[in-house]
Amino acid sequence: MENKDVEFYLPKRPRLKDFLYKGPFAYFLTLCTHKQFPYFTDRKIFELVLPILKETASSYFFVLYAYCFMPDHLHLL
Q1: Angle at 35 between CA 29 and CA 37, to 5 degrees
Q2: What's this model's pTM, rounded to 2 decimal places?
Q3: pLDDT at residue 6, as a whole number
Q4: Confidence class for position 25, pLDDT limits 50, 70, 90
């Protein structure tokens, strides 16, 4: 079943052909907000998201080395 009310933008993601992307490596992620809405200009949302992000990283055995909240996206290392 397809939901016509939801639009998704999936950018082209370059991937190394012979790399499994599993194991003890450093990863740089960019997470974008829905329809590029500037959610992270609201400090309350930032304060809500950051603890969840840290807890989720820990539960999946990731180390969150650095993060940068921008108005409509988030960078993680």
Answers
A1: 85
A2: 0.72
A3: 55
A4: confident
> Smallest Cα–Cα separation from 70: which of 13, 32, 35?
32
Q: How many residues does the chain have?
A: 77
CA distance 33 to 39: 7
Q: Rg of the Cα trace of the chain? A: 15
The residues near 13 (Cβ < 8 Å, ≥ 6 apart) are none
CA–CA separation, 39 and 69 (whole Å): 10
User: Which residues, in sequence order, are CB contacts of 34 under 8 Å at separation 6+?
Assistant: none
- Which amino acid, 10? L
Asked if residue 41 lies in contact with residue 12, where contact means CB atoms within 8 angstroms, the answer is no
Q: Measure CA 7 to chain center.
A: 18
- Mean pLDDT (the chain) is 86
Residue whose C-alpha is closest to residue 41's, from 19, 74, 4, 5: 74
